[in-house]
Q: What sequence folds into this?
């Protein structure tokens, strides 16, 4: 059996991270694929940490069980909160919370009050779910998978990449810290917000910190949209999609530029690595999900997203396994330039 090594780049996206759960579940099923390193942001960072902890504890099967348990814990933690889809939401807009009175009220409050006013005790239900799902002491010494977790320094505006041995609950919460919802997470005396502002996910750690040349990007946030948004909610949703994809698009353009120079013989391949870029996405399925659905952690919705992730990952493996180690399976120029 031919085993091929890949690196994974996992986007953030709140509850939409359950789609990545499905992708990982399918990749773990295929023993021909071996993951060297993962770069993750926000929900992608949490998936990465759970994946690595499970691999270190008992290999592929344990990693799959760990991911199942993590998302079950996320759903369970959300059940005590007010953000639930109304019957009209379930009938009219699928998985969105657009007509949930609690979501509308919460959305208005976050536009007028900061989390320092709304949540002075700085309570975060994600902490309990993480601590229940990951053995962080074991993760400190786990080297089954290299981890690169991104967060944004509030003061400097620079990205900080936390690596294997540094991953704590605070690091993962910092990577997922949306400043309108949560207080900044302080690590080593520095405040951090969501890593998606500067790297969703960051690709450069996989170039410099891993040997494998094949990077598989698991896309959550759609790059395009079918029509011009006209309502306030639609506009905000599209602004979020654009802003959280911008850093990734810049890195893709840089990779394309360096690849052209390498192919033209203008750069030494002993110094510069040629990267093979692969892309797993469910653009059409994710386009129909509004920003409010990122806060919907009902188990039926999470399992729906997992099923989508498994389906697209299965199709990607069938179509592109032979290309791994040889060439990119997307046209970077066409997609990003």
A:
């Amino acid at each position: 059996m031919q085993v091929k090594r890949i690196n994974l780049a996992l986007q953030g996206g709140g509850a939409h991270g359950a789609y990545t759960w499905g992708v990982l579940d399918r990749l773990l099923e295929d023993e021909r694929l071996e993951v060297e390193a993962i770069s993750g942001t926000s929900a992608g960072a949490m998936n990465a940490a759970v994946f690595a902890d499970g691999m270190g504890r008992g290999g592929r099967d344990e990693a799959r069980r760990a991911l199942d348990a993590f998302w079950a814990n996320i759903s369970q933690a959300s059940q005590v909160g007010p953000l639930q889809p109304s019957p009209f939401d379930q009938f009219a807009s699928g998985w969105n919370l657009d007509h949930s009175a609690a979501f509308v009220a919460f959305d208005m409050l976050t536009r007028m009050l900061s989390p320092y006013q709304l949540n002075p005790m700085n309570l975060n239900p994600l902490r309990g779910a993480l601590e229940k799902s990951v053995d962080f002491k074991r993760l400190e010494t786990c080297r089954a998978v290299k981890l690169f977790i991104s967060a944004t320094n509030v003061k400097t505006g620079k990205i900080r990449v936390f690596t294997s041995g540094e991953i704590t609950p605070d690091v993962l919460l910092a990577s997922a810290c949306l400043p309108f919802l949560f207080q900044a997470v302080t690590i080593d005396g520095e405040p951090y917000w969501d890593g998606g502002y500067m790297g969703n996910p960051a690709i450069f750690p996989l170039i410099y910190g891993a040997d494998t040349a094949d990077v598989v990007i698991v896309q959550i946030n759609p790059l395009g949209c079918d029509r011009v948004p006209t309502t306030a909610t639609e506009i905000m949703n599209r602004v979020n999609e654009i802003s959280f994809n911008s850093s990734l698009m810049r890195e893709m353009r840089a990779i394309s530029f360096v690849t052209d120079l390498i192919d033209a013989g203008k750069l030494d391949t002993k110094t510069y690595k040629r990267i093979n870029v692969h892309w797993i996405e469910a653009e059409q399925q994710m386009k129909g999900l509004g920003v409010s659905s990122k806060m919907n952690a009902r188990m039926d919705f999470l399992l729906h997203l997992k099923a989508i992730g498994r389906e697209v990952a299965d199709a990607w493996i069938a179509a592109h396994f032979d290309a791994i180690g040889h060439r990119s399976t997307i046209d970077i120029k066409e997609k990003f330039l």
